Amino acid sequence: MDAPNTKPYHLPSDAVWFITGCSSGIGQSLAQLITQTSNRVVATARKVSALSSLPTNDHVLKLELDVTSIPSIEAALQVTVERFGRIDVVVNNAGYTLVGDTEAAEDQESRAVLDTNFWGMVDVTKRALGIMRDVNPNTGQQGGVILNLSSMGGWSGYPGSSFYHASKFAMEGWTESVAKELPASWNIHLCNIEPGGVKTNYATSSLKHMAKRHPAYAEPNYPTNVLLAYMLNEECRSLWSEPSALAAAMYQVVSRGQRIPIRVPLGADSWGMIAKDLEDTKKDLDDLKEISLGVGDPKQLETINFLK
Ligand SMILES: NC(=O)c1ccc[n+]([C@@H]2O[C@H](COP(=O)([O-])OP(=O)(O)OC[C@H]3O[C@@H](n4cnc5c(N)ncnc54)[C@H](OP(=O)(O)O)[C@@H]3O)[C@@H](O)[C@H]2O)c1
Fold first, then answer.
1. What is the pLDDT of residue 137?
2. Are 27 and 3 in contact (CB under 8 A)?
């Protein structure tokens, strides 16, 4: 079996980055950072007019792209290939959160989060893989990197945004599976970026509240209300990371000439919460060992050694 990709990735000096959701926040900062390097950037947004903070020159292409529209995705990828002949790094960044009480969630608003955060990422990535494998070799090295903006909430679930967490957990599982599906020789690397809190529009103008709250969850000290009070308080957000720091870390992960890990936590909150979650999971594994190994044949594990 051609093993999952553990080889280093080498970013070409004139690499082409294709980024969704560049009107603000992390996407905008990353696009700005790329314009200061020898790389080229395709900055996309639902409205091209929202990309005016980026310079206009031969290394920058600004395109309209709504990740919930397949024709819009296909058109943007086609124009990119016509203009630059290749795509080295795709950043599936477009996304938002929906907050409220899960019991009160309406079907349409719940599904819409997955349409953007999960299916948007799937629909871009499925098409980008073929470009990295089949088109890139015409103008340089085969392969590339797909960076998916997950979250520390793609590792652990927290109260009040269950559909957001579902979308990021789905993203992480899909990404890990696809990363292992691709022969290493194609040089395509997939990665879940897991930020903690970042000072963007995420918790302000981009934040969506469910249409209705559920009366049973009204107590201010109930978990969702405690978390919402934290997120909506500007002072609490004052220690969140700068989007420019996120952009610099993402650029470093891709450009440092090393293996691209499947998960990259960014920020002390993300790193610390994931570390705590791992400790708790290990405790559960130890506590449950006897019950767990009491099921089935001990040799069952050996039959899937090829997946390790
Ligand atoms: N900030 C945080 O604390 C944090 C933490 C963990 C993960 N993240 C993730 O980081 C990513 C970027 O968010 P951000 O923090 O930079 O927030 P942001 O400032 O609100 O930026 C989100 C971007 O996504 C775009 N977008 C939303 N729906 C879209 C669609 N259907 N098609 C194309 N673009 C769409 C928005 O464009 P419009 O202007 O058109 O709405 C905006 O440019 C998200 O996936 C988010 O889940 C953020």
1. 98
2. no
Task: State the pairing for strand pair 263-266/208-209.
Answer: unpaired
**Confidence at residue 308, expressed as pLDDT on a 0 to 100 scale:** 86
What is the distance between the alpha carbons of residues 253 and 256, in angstroms, rounded to a whole number?
6
Q: Which two tokens stand for residue 197?
A: 């809190």
Does ligand 1 come within 6 angstroms of the Cβ of 23?
yes
CA-to-CA distance for 129 and 293, rounded, in angstroms? 39
- Residues of the chain where predicted confidence (pLDDT) is lower than 50: none
190 lines ligand 1 (CB under 6 A): no
Q: Any bridge partners for residue 265, and if so which?
A: 194
264 phi and psi angles, rounded to 5 deg: -130, 95
Q: Whose C-alpha lies nearest to ligand 1, atom 9?
A: 149
Residue 3: predicted pLDDT: 63
Q: List domains and CATH numbers for the chain.
A: 16-307 (3.40.50.720)
Nearest CA to ligand 1 atom 41: 206
Using CA atoms, how far apart are residues 120 and 127, in angstroms rounded to an integer? 11
Angle (deg, nearest 10), helices 25-35 and 243-255: 60
Active site residues: 150, 164, 168
Distance CA 87, CA 77 (A): 9
pTM above 0.90, yes or no: yes
Token pair in block for residue 250: 């993402």
Round to whole Å and give the CA distance between 266 and 76: 29
Q: In what order do the strands lie in the sheet with 263-266?
A: 60-64, 40-45, 16-19, 89-92, 144-149, 188-195, 263-266
Q: How many CB atoms lie within 10 A of CB 179?
A: 18
